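Dear support,

I submitted the protein below through the web form. The confirmation email said the job was done, but the results page showed an empty box. After a refresh the structure appeared. I'm attaching both so you can tell me whether what I see now is the final result or a partial one.
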Amino acid sequence: MAARSLPQTLALAVSLALSLVALPCPESLAASPPTQNAGDSNPRRTPVVRVVQEAGPAVVSIVSARPAQTPFANDQLQRFLGLPSTPQQQKQTTRSLGSGVIIDGKRGFVLTNAHVISGAAEITARLQDGREFQASLVGADPDIDLAVLRLELPGPNRPTLPQARMGDSSDLMIGEPVITIGNPFGLSHTVTTGVISAVNRSVRSSQTYITGLIQTDAAINPGNSGGPMLNILGQVVGINSAVFAKGEGLGFAIPINKAKRVLDELIATGRVAHIWLGLLGENMEQDQAAYFGLKHVGGMVVTDVFPKTPAEAAGIKPGDALLSIGEVEVQDKSQFLALLLNYAKGDSIRVKLRRSKDPFEVRLTPQVLDRQASLNLLDWRWGFSPSTEGKGAASAGGPTAGGGDAGGVTIAEVRAGGPAARLGIKPGDVVLQVGSRRTANEADLLGAFYRYQMHTTLILSVQRGGQSYNVRMKI
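What the results page shows now:
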């Protein structure tokens, strides 16, 4: 029998161990208050009880089965080391637990976190009434940590499942009561209550930076990932996503409005189109802060501005200091990229900068960083180009379950004198992982490039022949 373990991705390292969680429902769902029996005079049937009775059936417990990470899971590597194949070992799997919420009962769509199903070869969803369904991945974006699953409903008379109602997270009030439902530690449909402690919080882990979160004192634990945060009307206003490891009463959720902006795109294309302003930058140093007349170190110094981009059109130049996006001060280049994830194409973004000691402000409309532009930038920045056919080619069918296919992206060309060439990478090498991101196909590689585009050092997992090794690439 497969071993069961809590999802390792639920706890991310920093002072924070992020126990990530899920998101909202489709726009077609009305945002009306829960039905209430006017004749119900039972004082024990409080508003919280009514919310749980209404929304609980739409919350699912998710079990993700993934291949066990054993030292010799790669059969080619076993043969390379002179070891016999071990079919029993190769069949071992681990199972992790998470939560989700049904957002379309007719089509069987479930919203959850991307990390809940990352690397999964098989996904099962269990409803409150005990029914179980196999699930397939419709779309996922690990940068915003959202994924949409489709439950495999039996036909031809497919059942219509319960579904949650989506609310509005733009007008949340500090102190407003909230209810969370999830699957912590495998205890399915656990209900916790609390209040909204703060909004627009930012948290950093060793792997990523997450901005715009809702903070709550409602108990959130490993396994809550993907479960809904509900207001007193029974509407989903957030997806429980993180917990502060060293203290109690510090949980975080992704606002539902952030999910609304990308939900249709995830369902239609399987991915979220990345946006950019057309610039790169570096973290500000103490002497640079003094040059710009700043009282403390913070922000990002622009190093590159690309032609025919919003940054060039707005008059931004290399050497400018980028200090804030919208109302949020930029601390460094990692937070800059995280803040962009809060916007979509067509949005107007207010950016504050300094040129020398002179402050100025611009408004930009971000553009989509399309596939060809991403490939061009990857070659210019990292110094190699992926193969577009065979192993590692992009799949027309969308993503696998979090990159569960071992896959890998074959390198077609290595630019002379570039970072990859200096490291010794050659055409035919296969990139298995960049940083914390597995790269089963081209789309995964471009997603990793988007996350790490401003990094000056990267850890790559590369396969040559039958051997895999980790290398550090300086850019």
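Response: this is the final, complete result; the empty box was a page-load delay. Residues 1-33, 70-90, 391-405 have pLDDT under 50 and may be disordered.
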